[in-house]
Design a protein that fits this description.
By secondary structure, this protein is mainly alpha-helical. The chain is built from ten helices and no strands. Helix 1 packs across helix 4, helix 4 runs antiparallel to helix 5 and helix 8 packs antiparallel against helix 9. The protein starts with 16 loop residues before the first helix and ends with a helix.
Length: 224
């Protein structure tokens, strides 16, 4: 399994060597946890297997994550942050230099993200949470925070579209429709292309009221 690059640790210039090493070890463990969830499944993932995958000792594992529950909670949070960062990075790349948000290309980019190991892990955990109350609680709490952050990032990424009265509805429609299709694809492998085309057409129609609004114009207004 190849996951997107690990989350970068903050500026280390004011940190000791030991602090930097500790943060790198923690990140390696969280990356290993996601890899184990993907390769082995949630139920078969143990702290011992994660430690082995991360290349750390049992003592180092317990120092950072005293229990499996602690590890799972932090791994869920780490997964959500990685998904949000990937979304932001790819959508920024799609719209670089654009005067108007590229709706079609943006949908394609998000659809591609939903075929990454990160979303497969998210799906694995969400299914497992049905019968695991601790995991369910961890996912529900952090998912609410993720939704709030996702909405804020979407407004900053698509400033022209955010001026539309249908922006929130369109955002939810996109997430629910694409993630729902991605979930179906994981289990059946069959997704009709016409559904993507239908979504693109629907969003273009919904944002017709801001088709003449420029991204740079909105940014200028918000900074005045």
């Amino acid at each position: 399994m190849t996951l997107p690059k690990p989350i970068e640790v903050a500026d280390n210039r004011d940190k000791t060597w030991q602090q930097t090493k500790s943060e790198n070890t923690r990140t390696a463990i969280l990356e290993a946890a996601l890899a184990c969830f993907y390769d082995l499944g949630y139920g078969a993932t143990t702290t011992e297997k994660v430690a082995k995958r991360a290349g750390v000792s049992r003592g180092a594992m317990l120092h950072h994550f005293p229990s499996r529950l602690h590890l799972v909670r932090e791994a869920v949070r780490y997964l959500y942050v990685k998904r949000l960062q990937l979304f932001e990075e790819q959508e920024l790349k799609v719209n670089e230099g654009a005067e108007h948000t590229r709706i079609s290309e943006g949908i394609d980019a998000y659809w591609q993200q939903l075929h990454s190991p990160l979303f497969t892990v998210f799906h694995e955990l969400r299914v497992a949470a049905r019968t695991d109350s601790d995991l369910q609680e961890a996912m529900a709490l952090d998912l609410q925070k993720l939704d709030e952050s996702w909405a804020e990032v979407a407004i900053s990424l698509f400033p022209d579209l955010a001026q539309s009265e249908d922006f929130e509805t369109a955002n939810l429609l996109t997430v629910f429709m694409l993630e729902g299709m991605a979930n179906r694809g994981i289990t059946t492998g069959s997704i009709p292309d016409k559904m993507i085309l239908l979504l693109k057409s629907q969003l273009t129609e919904m944002f017709a009221d801001v088709s003449d609004v420029g991204r740079s114009t909105v940014k200028t207004r918000t900074t005045d």
